[in-house]
Design goal:
By secondary structure, this protein is α/β, with parallel strands linked by helices. The protein is built from 16 helices and twelve strands. It has two domains: 121 residues, 3-Layer(aba) Sandwich (Rossmann fold), CATH 3.40.50; 255 residues, Rossmann fold (3-Layer(aba) Sandwich). The strands form two sheets. The chain has an eight-stranded mixed sheet, with helices on both faces. It has a four-stranded parallel sheet with strand order 2-1-3-4, with helices on both faces. Bound molecules: adenosine-5'-diphosphate and magnesium ion.
Length: 385
């Protein structure tokens, strides 16, 4: 990987370890960001901006680099920036924020980029995905759970699934039969000291590649949830995992509205009927009215049948939103999935439903999906392992 470090002062110690790992390291000094030539980012796979103040100029530089060089991963290096500023950096297109200019922290930041494949791995595909239901029961939770599961089957991909369908989400039942030791409220209680390692420890380990934060188990635990803490959590998860998939439920509560713009993709899961069309139109009007960026919204059409109440083309054109994917009814696989707490990719691997998820995940991650071996199927049948 070509790593370019632009710092406001000469670095006391360069992360020269990168050179021995096969990366090419280049360092430049630029006293301030006025007139910063953003096209410089085109010469590198990763650009670290070190020692610049956490202000509007740095945001502008990040935005400019991302526009000029979409394949370059831009990483500001800042000591303890305020959570709000980190959110603004992510919105400007920074893929990570490193905590200090010590060589080991910069090497760790480059390693994180390598493990998430930087931006080049899958071009400009989104890595943070919110899933919202057009109307209750349209399938947002089912789509979110199976998308998380499908992504985690792609080589080297780690996924954080977060249940923000408040107050009572049910993302967990699609993925596991075990009760999570910590729910969203427990994780947020640790906001002050939350880092990537603690987040991984507190989340529920569904499988090697899937971590889950379930919604609070009781209403009393839900009332204490602060939207600002959720924003911080989503930002940290986005920096720490290859993908974040969040179930935002009906997309109208303060928490969902607060995190909406953090996601690179917002999937509106809908069935092709009049109530869902009316509700989708209302949601889009609400989000636009509140200044949310709706260019990132796509439709996922669920439970398609040969005779929909509203034809797909008419549905999409009425809303002015593109369709990302369509799924048919998969009653058997979904029922088994809920009974067994395993994704449909495991309960009905050869269904059209699972195959569509496999194609989608491969497209998003840029790597082919791993198929279960015959031995894995046998183990499930025999209930061993
Ligand atoms: N494509 C599908 N085929 C069969 N059952 C589905 C499908 N999509 C969703 N379901 C089932 O429909 C019910 C409602 O889905 P859910 O994901 O909970 O909706 P939402 O989160 O939008 O309220 C659940 O029992 C779910 O498993
Ligand atoms: Mg739901």
């Amino acid at each position: 990987m070509k790593v370019l470090i632009i710092s406001s002062r000469p670095l006391e110690r360069q992360p020269s370890e990168l050179n021995t790992r096969g990366d090419t390291l280049l360092c430049q000094v630029l006293p301030d960001l006025v007139g910063f030539p953003v096209s410089t980012a085109r010469t590198a796979d990763a650009l670290l901006l070190v020692g610049f103040p956490a202000d509007a100029r740095l945001l502008e530089a990040v935005r400019g680099c991302v526009e000029a060089a979409p394949d370059c991963a831009v990483v500001p290096v800042l000591g303890n920036p305020p959570a709000d500023y980190v959110v603004q950096l992510m919105q400007a297109g920074a893929v990570d924020v490193a905590s200090s200019p010590f060589p080991q922290d910069m090497v760790a930041a480059v390693e994180r980029l390598r493990s998430r494949g930087t931006r080049n791995l899958a071009g400009s595909q989104p890595h943070s995905i919110a899933v919202i239901s057009a109307k209750g029961g349209d399938g947002a939770t089912c789509i979110a759970a199976n998308l998380a599961s499908a992504l985690a089957r792609c080589s080297g991909v780690r996924v954080m699934a977060i249940d923000l369908s408040l107050p009572f989400g049910d993302l967990d039942i699609h993925l596991t039969t075990e009760q999570s030791q910590n729910d969203l409220a427990d994780v947020l209680e640790q906001s002050e000291r939350l880092d990537a390692a603690l987040l991984d420890t507190l989340s529920h380990h569904v499988s090697d590649g899937v971590r889950l934060i379930s919604s609070p188990a009781t209403f009393e635990r839900f009332v204490g949830i602060q939207p600002a803490q959720v924003t911080q959590l989503v930002g940290l998860a986005t920096r720490s995992y290859n993908f974040v998939v969040a179930d935002l439920g009906n997309g109208t509560d303060p928490v969902s509205l607060g995190v909406f713009d953090l996601f690179e993709r917002v999937l509106l899961v809908t069935t092709l009927d009049v109530p869902s069309l009316r509700r989708s139109a209302k949601l889009l009007r609400l989000w636009r009215g509140m200044g949310r960026d709706c260019s990132r919204v796509r439709l996922v059409v669920n439970r398609v049948s040969s005779e929909p109440e509203v034809p797909l083309a008419q549905f999409a054109s009425t809303l002015g939103v593109e369709v990302a994917y369509q799924f048919e009814d998969e009653v058997h696989g979904v029922n088994e999935s809920l009974l067994e707490g395993r994704s449909v990719l495991e309960t009905a691997p050869s269904s059209d439903f699972s195959k569509t998820f496999q194609r989608w995940a491969a497209e998003l991650s840029g790597t082919p999906i791993r198929k279960d071996s015959a031995w894995t199927h046998l183990k499930h049948l025999l209930h061993v392992g």
